[in-house]
Structure formats: structure tokens, C-alpha cells
Amino acid sequence: MVDGKFICRLQYPHIWGRYELCQECFGGKDRDMQTVETCRGKNVTILAIESSCDETAVAVVRNGREVLSNIISSQIDLHTLYGGVVPEIASRKHIERIDQVIAEALKTADRKLKDMDAVAVTYGPGLVGALLGGVSAAKAISFASGLPLIGVHHIEGHISANYIENKELEPPFICLVASGGHSHLVNVLGYGDYRIIGRTRDDAAGEAFDKVARAIGLGYPGGPKIDRLSREGDPDAIPFPRAKIAENEYDFSFSGLKSAVLNYLNSCQMKGEPVCQADVAASFQKAVIDVLVEHSLHAVRKFGYDKFAIAGGVASNSSLRAAFEEACGRRNIRFYRPSPVLCTDNAAMIGAAGYYEYAKGVRSGYDLNAVPNLRL
Q1: 354: domain range?
Q2: Mean pLDDT, the chain, whole residue set
């Protein structure tokens, strides 16, 4: 397939040939099966590239669940100087690092390019310049080697990170994707089959963490710093609000909570009262977690599932993970979460998602482009 259409063998001979999917495994009535078996017992190895923000990441993933290498070149120390990600700087650093990271991923996996079956790459959403660095590299590799090219949605990658360490996990289930740019509740109906049932109306959860961290003087990146500092504070010290959206019981809103924190800080300043950073951090964090847990498990109950997963950078928050573990345990819901390194941006998750796209016959053409506001 190219852009959702079955392709002509004469137009795209590099995609067919030895890469053609066997009809016995993936054709006819079995094409939409949820549990994808490796084609005729053949191991499928994906070279995956992720560059949607400020991490240049490359991984080698076999059969969607076995990570042979996962190399991440982070720019966090550089962007900390500016209090957040500077898109132009991020784009340039991807270009500088991408070739070395690809080489290191192949070396760590003890594989060569000829051992790959396809190259998968994040093409959106994200920073357009950053995305272009990875997409251009992936297209060049595909053109030079004849490997099939697979464009992967960044959010699909985050969801698929759960498959890597939870070999038994299969759809359907509800997944909360919470990061600096997204707060989505997703009904995962099958591999590559998603329905967004809830989303933020304003700030994403991770965005709210960064803004509040800046307001109380913690700096960037806000999420990990609030997570650490909140352990020293009282989560019930300040009664910050929990927003509910009347039109959609699964939607989120964090801008009001952020404003409440700013108003509290301004009020203390005007009154000359001291501000306990740890109490503010803990109370803010608890307000975010309460809403995420309540809406997520409400969705699990309403859809009749017994499986729930989290994904995205905010999913590495220790208090959030503990809250979900406790709440799911009380409701006999199986709770899945990736290791923290697989919650933040990485290429292993893109390799996992790319494998299931490959198995379904999805292929991208050389006109694949970066789509910064790509919808799931």
C-alpha cells in the first residue's frame, strides 16, 4: 500500500519482490486479524527512526516486541539553557547526529542495513523541522537500499511502546497518552485501529507541568522536577481545582488548574506570605493525577474492558504510575505501563508500531512528508 492504496508492482518494484506479504498469513479474511503472526515464521526486523522533538533516536526492533538496540541522543541539556525546546536548534542537531545514531543502532544490534526488512519513521505530529530530519534520512535509506518505507504516527508509537515489555498485551484496551503536546484517551480496537474518545481542550498535561515548574522556579524540564520535589510536599496542602467538561465526560482541561496555581503564587506574593515549593508541586501534581485517573478508569468501565495502559512522557511520573496501579488493583483491571525510558520519545516504540503497519501491508511512497499536526 502507498497512502492507503494498493500499489502497482511495476511502479514500486523495490517494495515487492522479496518483501511481498504472503497471502496465507495476511491475505483475505485473515488480513484484519488482531494478533499478527510473523509471516511464514520469518523474523521481521525494522530499522526505526524518531525525531519529532528534541531526541534523535534510532532502534532496531524484531517482530514488533524485541528490541535489539535503542539509541537516543538527547538535546535536553542544550535546551535547558533556553527554558524549553528551541525548534530551530533541535532541527539542526538532528541533522548533525542522525547518521552517527543510525550507525550506532546497527552496531549495537549487531546488524547491517541488508539485514533489515523495512525502515519506519515518525512523520507527525511534532516540530516540522525536527520531523524532516528523520523523514529525509529514512527516505534516503529506503531509496538507496530498496527497503520498504513506513511512515508512523508518533502517538501510535507511544501506544505501541506497551507491546515491547508486555508480550501478552493485545487489543482491545484503553490507553492514556499523556505528554508535553498531547493528552488523549484512546480506545485501541486493534493494531493500528484507534478511536480517540477524550482529549485536552487546552493545555496538555505535560505542558501544564512545564509551565507550573517554571512559575515556581524549577525550570525546564518541568515534569521530572515536579515529580521529585512533590515527594517532599503535602499533596493536600492547597485545594487546587479539578476540571470537568460537560460536553464530553472523557475530555481534559488543565489551563484552569495552571491559572489557579499562578493566582495562588501571585496572592502569596502580594500578601507577603512564604511559598512552599514542595506543597505547590505536590498539590498541583495530585490535581492532575486525580483527573487523569478518574477519566481513564471511567472509560475502561464504560467500554467494558479489563485492560488499561499508559504512554507518553507524563506516564513516567512515579506518582501517576502508583496511583493507577492502586486504582486498577482495586477494580481488577490489568494495568500496563512501559519502562520510563520507553515513555519518553524513543525509536523502539516506532519500530513496534512500524512492524504492525508492515504486517498489514502498509507502505509509504517517496512523497512521504512531515505533517506537524497529523491526526491519529
Answers
A1: 17-167+345-359
A2: 89
